[in-house]
Amino acid sequence: MKAQFISCITLTMLILASPLLAATPHDGAYYFDALKTSMLEVLAEHQPLFNKTAHDEVKSPDLVPEEIYKYSYNKFKRIIGHDFQLQSLTNETDPAKIAPVLSTLLQAGRITIARSQKAINTEQDGSVKLKKFIPAVFGRLSGERFEQKTGVVLKQTTLGKNGFAERNSYNKPLDWEKADLHKFKEQSWPVNKGIGQTEGKEFHYIKPIYIKKACLGCHGVPIGDKGPYGHAKEGYEVGDIRGGISVTMPLQ
Fold first, then answer.
1. Separation of alpha carbons 12 and 7, rounded Å
2. Which one, 93, 178, 212, 252, has least CB within 10 Å?
3. How does pLDDT run across 27-85, given as a tens digit for each residue?
4. Per-residue CA distances from 200 to 12, 197, 251 (Å)
């Protein structure tokens, strides 16, 4: 009887310590809406930079915040799977289910901004003026705004390639991010599969981001040549792991 009582206590302790019971202060719907709002705010604030004429008129209806977000959300659905339903985030406080959704939405926004570079940089008269509103900038600003709203850290990070490290200090990987980024580079690693784990009162998650054709102008070849924004190209090819989007969520 005593042994059985001790076993019950041990089992209870294991259950309470289980990461499956880790919970976020808010549900997934709250975090998703906060990220959506953050992305829209960043896009709205930068409209004068890339989507307004000299007469303060809209340059392109495809570049207004709502249209960019709509395209991003469609891309998000393709990446995360069309069986995903936003309603599933309501009352969902499991960080292992929330974090992948957040990182995928930001990933989709980055892809959209990458594919919009020609429209962003082309003036009404056909001339090209680099606006420097690139995926990394959009992702960083959206992540900063999101952290202000929620306390959740949404970060872009990379190991670099061919001796080139991250381009900005705020993208420098932490030790746990480094370890997971190395796993992503293994040939057997499934596409878009992320890694999540609970550490103390935080949940850490990271998912890979890949080089797309639109990224090659800044990150492709020849290695070492300066890209349009003055950074050395790292020699990436389409499909390479560029890095990851990490999420650090506080737990209750």
1. 9
2. 252
3. 999 999 999 999 999 999 999 999 999 899 999 999 999 999 999 999 999 999 989 99
4. 18, 10, 9
